[in-house]
Amino acid sequence: MQRSVKNIYRLGIKELRSLYRDPVMLFMIIWAFSASIYIAGTSISHDLHNASIAIVDEDQSPLSLRIRSAFLPPYFKQPDIIAFQDIDEGMDLDKYSFVLVIPEEFEADVLRGRQPTLQVNLDATAVMIAGIGSGYIQNIVNDEISRFISNGPSTSQSPVDMRLRYAFNPNLSSKWFTSIMEVISNITMFVILLTGAALIREREHGTIEHLLVMPVTPIEIMLSKVWANGLVILTATAFCLWVMIEGVLQVPIAGSVPLFLLGTLLYLFFASALGIFLGTTARSMPQFGLLFIITILPMNLLSGGQTPLESQPEWLQHIMWFVPSTHFVSFAQAILYRGAGLDIVWPNFLAVSVVGLSLLTLSALAFRRSIAA
Amino acid sequence: MNRQERSVITLSHVTHVYGKTQALDDVSLEIPAGKMIGFIGPDGVGKSTLFGLVAGARKIQSGEIKVLGQDIGNDKKRKDLLPRIAYMPQGLGKNLYMDLTVFENLDFFARLFGQGKAEREARIKTLLKATGLDPFPDRPAGKLSGGMKQKLGLCCSLIHDPDLLILDEPTTGVDPLSRRQFWDLIRSIRKDRPQMSVLIATAYMEEAEGFDWLAAMNDGKILDTGTAEELKDKTGGGTLEEAFIALVDDGKQVKHEKLALPPYEDGHGEDPVIVTKNLTKKFGAFTAVNDVSVEIMPGEIFGFLGSNGCGKTTTMKMLTGLLPASEGEVKIFGKTPSNNDMEFRHRVGYMSQAFSLYSELTVWQNLELHAQLFHVPDDTIKPRIDELLRRFGLETHKDTLPSSLPLGVRQRLSLAVAVVHEPEMLILDEPTSGVDPVARDEFWKLLIDLSRNKKTTIFISTHFMNEGMRCDRITLMHEGNILACDAPDKLIADKGKKTLEEAFIAYMEEANAEKGAKPDSSAAGDITASVEDDKKTGALLALVQGTRRIAAYAMREAKELSRDRIREAFAFFGTMILMLVFGFGITFDVENITFAVLDQDKTPESRLYTQALEGSRYFTEKAPLIDHADMDHRLKSGQITLALDIPPGFGKDLLRQKSPEVAVWVDGAMPFRAETAGGYMQGLHYDFIGRLYEEYYGEQVALSPVSIEPRFLYNQGFKSAYAIVPSVIALMLLFIPSILAALSVVREKELGSITNLYVTPTSKFEFLLGKQIPYVAITMMNFLLLVLTAWLVFGVPVKGSFIALFIGAFLYAGCTTALGLFFSAFTGTQIAALAVTAIMTLLPAVQFSGLMQPVSTLEGVGAFIGRIYPTTHFITVAKGAFAKDLDFAELWPSLRALLISWPIILAAGIFFLKKQEA
User: What is the pTM of this model?
Assistant: First the structure.
């Protein structure tokens, strides 16, 4: 037992030394956990931002002018005023995501209480922005009109008020979301890549065979890769959270980073087991590359980190429940955004551990079989 | 022969350095033309570097080299020179493609030199015939024996009638019979083309004796030149080997004594260490080892001699327990070796044929790791390693990485590693292949010491007959069978020959005669095909030849891909599977928002409010909340996305028109979803007010002075599928093609066949474009498959111009594969290429290309990347063609962007790709 632990430790040191000699790989890891996070965090905004809008103003009244000037950055770009017949072209060429049409006699109809119709053309192929944007436009227009009618801020008494608040991210800053989701997807990607590709390289260079004539078991070889690569990624993650996310990007982290790292540690078992599994299944690096892409893309896009899980068809949700990255995303959001404690995230931790350990066992079996052949 | 070409190669003051290691030190040399020229010397003295420089595969650092009268350092001249030079790098079949057949390999090389169909076929036919490879034109190169691989390599080198043939250790690791045939072949070729000069590096001194002119090298310097006789006369040595040793260092001459093997003392009734009985191994229908029975005694040196692929390695793997035997049994130390027997592994040291130490660890670190893994006690590790370093002459290399060490030194390191735990038995698989005579003698001294003084049993395989002579007993193996097994002297006597080599060849010929197979090397006379050159001239000829080279790389790549079933299947159907998953899985429709109500009022009015949510198709209700703590907990755990808090007295206040306030909490963790949910909630709130008026006051109220009518263009149902499917196609056509293209280049770098780019007239453009064609073709097939899936499975047909979409996909495929090639220029290992390509495609494509949100809404770096990334433009084309019913003219701006990107990316790839090794 003690020997086994020593072997695992020493083989792991070897992994670290190997990685240290691969400058491209080192650079990629550093890049992925610093610059890449920064770019993702600062470039993408899920909320309405700089949306391109054009207005067809057939009324040319004080009210329509008011509405025109109400579309302001940062939500909207300065609106273009276009003619009715230009709508299709502008939309077709993606020049505008929205075109608002203010009909003739609009102001007059409003004043007469005739409830005239405003048309909003949306490019519905940009689903996300279209949905949010139409809400914004409605609010802006309504605000302007009620202000116009009452000649001041809207004071009309509603029978019920609703106070809508966004918990955990009051300003709905998407930087919070994208930067941390980028960390998560990079963790998955690198652990699989490091363990799986390291395994293939050992096989292509014949060093695996060499290890197997030594008093070392396949399990020890595997676990050494798990801990060494896991350590690298865990360190990178911790650095990234404290320095990049909290420091540079100024994203407040609600919960406990150590708790999140603990969860990450559990997740690393799964991810490295998956890497080893893919590494044993693939016979060469190009094959591994394909397998890698085919597994990483769905894990990345369907785990709830990019698109909402709840909107997926039910069968897919059931499948995704068994994929630990779903739980990883889930507890990452719970801990980092909502400040959840272990009392809340333990079911996720448990699920990640159970699936991770099962896959680790499966990988160990596959690995042993693959080198016996 | 004019005067200029008196000397085929002139080196003046050539110096070459790798990091701190000096490979060539101010070498100046004139090499006479039209001769067989041998370079002899230990490993790592700079022979391979010199050959690489002369062949144009390496970039000259300093000095000048004239080959065939031209300066090879000049890029333009080199281009003209390369078709006149043939270069066979060191290593068995290093420049061959193992998945390709014999014929395909030859055909590929012929195309690289721009030969037409008739010429190619004629040449290949004669070459195959001359080398005796004609019975197996359809055998994959990887399945050839070592000797045959080298013959094929030679054929490939001779395909273009070179004036200079450069062979770097061509017979290393080849059995004696094949070796003899190889040299016969070279001789007959030279008879036919006397003007051809042949440059050979060799480790076999017997071979070197037969050459016309020799250059002895040591330590990056030329020691002496001349014929074998001249060298022997100068030093007074009896054999060339002795002469060389004398040249290397006059002082050491005395020290070097002939290796003596003390006689083996028969064990006194000891049990044999290794016993095999009828050992057989079959791989499918192929019998690798057939009925091998041997007994080896403790302390014996037992040699295994035989051609490559005769089953030596397989037998050794069965002895170590790496491979299970198909039939028969193995007993080592009286036990059957098993995979899990750690005790057994402690007693055995194994050195495999290929160098299999960690090239990323230094010499010291490798030794340390192995000592630790064999559980050498911690306090004895350091003295033990120090002793090994001293004994194996590795002290100066202690902190060097093995990859920068010469082969001979690496082999010494391998042996040091194999004995680090002082095993009782050593299994050494061709440990001295490629090692020079001096180093080999040193190596054997160590072995003899281990055997005689430490009673280590040594089981060794080798190609060298003089090493065979040093064994106590040897086994001659051929095609899985044992031909003979006895003391070497006895074997020679049995056949009535003078040397072991002759005896072995006699045994092999006997075995071959039984099978009736005999390679026909008599036809070697007519090696050069007399084919008329193409009638075309000048620019046209260059164009035709260039096209042929592009076709050569394209066809080779396509063939290799088609041989790899898994890769092929994934390349075709992987995208479709992903498309199905994403098409169903990615959706930005915000639905099934989970909510729970904390109703502190519990009046009909509060229930009326709740009903507004219950009725909505966007919301899914969960069990009611008990209190604020519960609300907090469930929001935190993500069980609910929205919590509705109705205060006590809500109903009463409402009826009294006191404007009560409900509180709604939305989980903001996923901002866009939260925002949408908030929007829905707002709508429902107004709904409630409307219903309230209706129920309590019986009147319809217009809450808003205007009605806003959203018109969803292109996607009337406002469903994600219409938006997602075109984007997913764009993603699918990006990742897999770029990764495959990147790996295809880096793989050649790792396996060594990239040399063919360096030493043939292939330009970088031809190389990359040739590589690209098959991947673009696959990508296009993929594209059609995806369009079909979009239509049939997702019901998203192409509404606009299919032609435009098709052209867009074609240009996009060009861009994505070119991106892969571009990344490959920077990466040396496949793993790094994979990582770089994955990172550099995944983020920009998913985040910045308009998949998630329009590029116009991005900021900073992301916006910049988004604007130039090809995926952005293809998504515009795809969306335009699928959803927007756009025609060609309207899609032209995006198509144009793709049309411009392709050559730019490819040009960048060409710019960064190296045409010569450093």
Answer: 0.78
